[in-house]
Write a structure and sequence with these properties.
The protein is α/β, with parallel strands linked by helices. It has 6 helices and 16 strands. Strands 1, 2, 4, 5, 6, 7 and 8 form a 7-stranded mixed β-sheet that branches. Strands 13-12-15-16 form a 4-stranded antiparallel β-sheet, with no helix packed on it. The structure holds zinc ion.
C-alpha cells in the first residue's frame, strides 16, 4: 500500500528542478498534482487512500458490462488543436479496445505476464463533443498549485463540464510547457483526478471541486495517428502516439496509480513504494518512453509471483512507449470496476438522449407546458429508489434528484430553467421512462 505522500513542496521539487535544468521531461501530471494539492489540503492524501482501500475490498458481484458516458470538450485556439470528429471517435475506440483487452497488440505481452492480463468489461460511449474556440493559454503552475481549472469553465475560456457525477468529462487542450519561473522543466501530457472522499475539504477552496472532476489531455496525444507531433526532450525523435495517454489518464480517474508507486519520481529510488496492486511487480522508477524489457529495478522474490520479476513495462500505468504498452492486470481491472460501482457509480445512472425508447406511460407531467414548476405523477408508487432528471436536447443535466421508494409524485422547480423543450427522465435499475416537457416563458 502506498502510504507516503511527500508534504514539503520544496523538498519535492528541488531534485526535480535540478535534473530538469539539463533535460526537460514529459510526464503525466498525476505525478505532480497530488503533491501540489496536498500542500494546500493535507487531508487529500488520506482521503484518496481511504477511497482506494474501499475500492480494493468492494465485492464485484456478477460481472456485467459497465457503460461510462463520455463527453469530450475540445477547447482550441490554433486550428490544429480543433481535433476532428473522426479522431475523437477513434480515441473512444482505443479506450474500448485497451480496457477490454481487444487491442491488436496483446500478443506483444511477455508470456510470463499473460496470466495476469485482465479485461475490465468497461465500455465508453461518446455522448457528445463540445467545441470551444478560446484565446486562453492553459499554463499549469507548480508553485501555486494551479491545475488549469479555467479549461473546465466556459466563463474562463474553457468549457463547462457536464454533471461530473454522471459523465466522464475529457477536456482536450493545448497544455503549455511546464515552467518553474522562466525555465521550461517539461511537458505534462495529461492528468486526471482519482476518486476521492472529499467531504472534508475546506469550503470555498480553489482546489479541484466536483465540477472540475475528470480528465485533461494535451491535444497532441489525443487519438491514434494524431497529426501533431510531440518531441521527446533531449532527443531527436517524436513520441509514439496511439491514443494511450487517455487510456492511462482514464485509469487514474478510475483509481489506478503508477506501477512504480511514484517512489522514485522526486526522491531517491526505492522499491518500497507500491501502487497497491499485488500483480504489478515492484519497480523503483518509470520507463523512459522506451520499451526496455530488460528493466528490472527491484530484484528479489516478488511475493505475488514467487519469482524475481522484471518491471512490467507493458502496463498502461508505466511510461513506456505507447508501442510497448498493451495491458492492465487483473488486480488493476478489479480496482477500476469497483471504483465505477462504488465512488463513481453516478456514471452508471445516465443514458444518452439517443437511447430514448417507447415505454408504457408510467408517469405524467402536470402541467405541461409548465413555467414555475412541474409535478411528476407516477401511475403507481415506485417500488425502488429512482433518479429523476431534467435534461435539455443535448443531454445536459439541469436538475437531478433521487426519489425514494414509495414516491407517487415529485416536484421539479423550473424557475431557473429557460424556455424550451426538455426531457424528464425517471430511471431506476428496473425501468426507464422519458417524457417531453415544454417550459413556457411567455
Ligand atoms: Zn500518470
Amino acid at each position: 500500500m502506498r502510504n507516503s505522500f511527500p508534504t514539503l513542496l520544496l523538498g519535492l521539487l528541488l531534485p526535480f528542478f535540478i535534473s530538469a535544468q539539463t533535460t526537460p521531461r514529459i510526464f503525466c501530471g498525476n505525478e505532480l498534482f497530488t503533491e501540489m494539492v496536498e500542500t494546500q489540503y493535507p487531508d487529500l492524501a488520506e482521503s484518496i487512500n481511504r477511497t482506494f482501500d474501499k475500492a480494493k475490498i468492494l465485492q464485484a458481484g456478477p460481472r456485467t458490462t459497465l457503460t461510462i458516458p463520455v463527453v469530450v470538450h475540445v477547447v482550441w485556439n490554433l486550428p490544429e488543436e480543433n481535433l476532428t470528429d473522426e479522431l475523437i471517435e477513434a480515441q473512444i475506440q482505443v479506450l474500448n479496445d485497451d480496457f477490454n483487452r481487444m487491442n491488436a497488440d496483446t500478443g506483444n505481452l511477455r508470456s510470463m505476464f499473460e496470466w495476469v492480463a485482465g479485461s475490465a468489461d468497461i465500455k465508453f460511449e461518446l455522448v457528445a463533443t463540445e467545441r470551444i474556440n478560446t484565446s486562453t493559454l492553459f499554463n499549469i503552475d507548480i508553485l501555486s498549485g494551479n491545475l488549469i481549472p479555467e479549461v473546465k469553465h466556459t466563463l474562463q475560456g474553457g468549457s463547462d463540464g457536464w454533471n461530473t457525477e454522471n459523465y466522464l468529462n475529457i477536456w482536450v487542450c493545448n497544455i503549455q510547457p511546464l515552467k518553474i519561473g522562466p525555465i521550461v522543466v517539461g511537458q505534462i501530457l495529461g492528468f486526471a483526478f482519482p476518486p476521492a472522499d472529499l467531504d472534508n475539504w475546506p469550503a470555498g477552496s480553489n482546489a479541484p471541486n466536483a465540477d472540475e472532476d475528470g480528465v485533461v489531455i494535451d491535444y497532441r496525444v489525443f487519438g491514434p495517428d494524431n497529426p501533431n507531433p510531440v518531441e521527446i526532450p533531449g532527443g531527436t525523435s517524436n513520441l509514439v502516439v496511439k491514443g494511450r495517454t487517455p487510456t492511462h489518464e482514464v485509469a487514474h480517474y478510475l483509481g489506478l496509480r503508477h506501477i512504480w508507486g511514484d517512489g522514485g519520481t522526486f526522491g531517491p529510488n526505492d522499491c518500497m513504494q507500491s501502487d497497491g496492486v499485488n500483480d504489478t511487480p515492484f519497480a523503483d522508477s518509470e520507463s523512459a518512453f522506451d520499451c526496455d524489457i530488460t528493466k528490472n529495478t527491484c530484484t528479489g522474490i516478488d511475493s505475488f509471483y514467487g519469482l524475481d520479476m522484471p518491471d512490467l513495462v507493458e502496463n498502461y500505468m508505466d511510461y513506456a512507449s505507447e508501442d510497448c504498452m498493451n495491458m492492465f492486470t487483473k488486480g488493476q481491472v478489479e480496482i477500476m470496476r469497483n471504483v465505477v460501482m462504488g465512488p463513481r457509480s453516478g456514471l452508471l445512472e445516465m443514458v444518452a438522449v439517443d437511447d430514448v425508447e417507447p415505454f408504457a406511460p408510467l408517469m405524467t407531467l402536470q402541467p405541461n407546458p409548465a413555467s414555475e414548476s412541474v409535478l411528476v405523477w407516477m401511475e403507481t408508487s415506485i417500488t425502488t429508489a429512482s433518479a429523476l432528471t431534467l435534461t435539455d436536447l443535448f443531454g445536459r443535466v439541469l436538475l437531478h434528484k433521487m426519489i425514494p421508494a414509495g414516491t407517487i409524485s415529485a416536484e421539479l422547480p423550473l424557475q431557473d430553467v429557460p424556455g424550451g423543450l426538455y426531457f424528464v427522465h425517471l430511471e431506476n435499475n428496473q425501468f426507464r421512462q422519458i417524457s417531453k416537457l415544454i417550459v413556457n416563458r411567455n
